[in-house]
Amino acid sequence: MRRRIQGLNDADQSAADQVRDGLFLVRVERAHHQWHARRPFYLLRFSVLKPKELSGQPITGRLYCTPRALWKLNWFLRDFGYDADLLGRDEIDEKKLVGLRGVAKISHVVADGASLLNLDGFAPAGQWEESSSVSRSSTSSREVMR
Fold first, then answer.
1. Is the dihedral of CA 104, 108, 109, 111 positive or negative?
2. What is the DSSP string of 37-87?
3. Segment 85-94 long-range contacts (CB within 8 Å, at least 24 positions apart)
4. 3-state DSSP helix/strand/coil percent for the chain, to nearest 5?
5. Is the Cβ–Cβ distance between 91 and 4 less than 8 Å?
6. Number of folded domains in the chain?
7. Which residue has the higher pLDDT, 130 or 122?
8. Buried b vs exposed e over 93-125: b needs ≥16 C-beta within 10 Å?
9. Could you tell me if residue 135 is inside a domain?
10. pLDDT of 93
């Protein structure tokens, strides 16, 4: 017996469309706080601005709000230009996160059979040219070493 399942072939395509590891100039498209008993987090959806060949691709990641992980959330907020007054009062307004731009370094890991995206680092949007050229030159030197 044959069954037709719409979208089954698209599953392979979505894996191929996944954004590679590296540095990207991104804009925050959506931010939502997710409460979790042990590990509350912000679910962030970014849109890639540069490199041009990946422009518009979505990247979704988590920034945890546990006491041990607040340094990374603070790093993200500062480098993406979040309102300093709100940050000084320990307040995050999800609406004010939308539209913020900056550089994000991402990587993928597999844990318990699931592919997870890590937000490894951040930089202000103004440092994109410098960051991307360093990334390209380090990639080139790694390829030469192989």
1. positive
2. SS--EEEEEEEEEESGGGTT-EEEEEEE-SGGGHHHHHHHHHHTT--HHHH
3. 92/33, 92/42, 94/31, 94/32, 94/33
4. 35, 35, 30
5. no
6. 1
7. 122
8. eeeebeebbbbbbbeeeeeeeeeebebebbbeb
9. yes
10. 93
Q: Band of the pLDDT at 6, cuts 50, 70, 90?
A: low
24, 47 Cβ separation under 8 angstroms: no
- Given phi > 0 = left and psi -120 to 50 = alpha, else beta, which region is 24? beta
Torsion angle (degrees, nearest 10) of CA 130, 136, 140, 143: 140
Tell me the whole-structure pTM to 2 decimals. 0.75
13 belongs to a structural domain: no
Structure tokens of 32? 């939502």
Quick check: is 95 in a domain?
yes
For residue 4, tell me if it sits in a domain.
Answer: no
Structural domain harbouring 113: 18-145
Pair 109, 37: CB distance under 8 Å: no
Read off the amino acid at residue 64.
Answer: Y
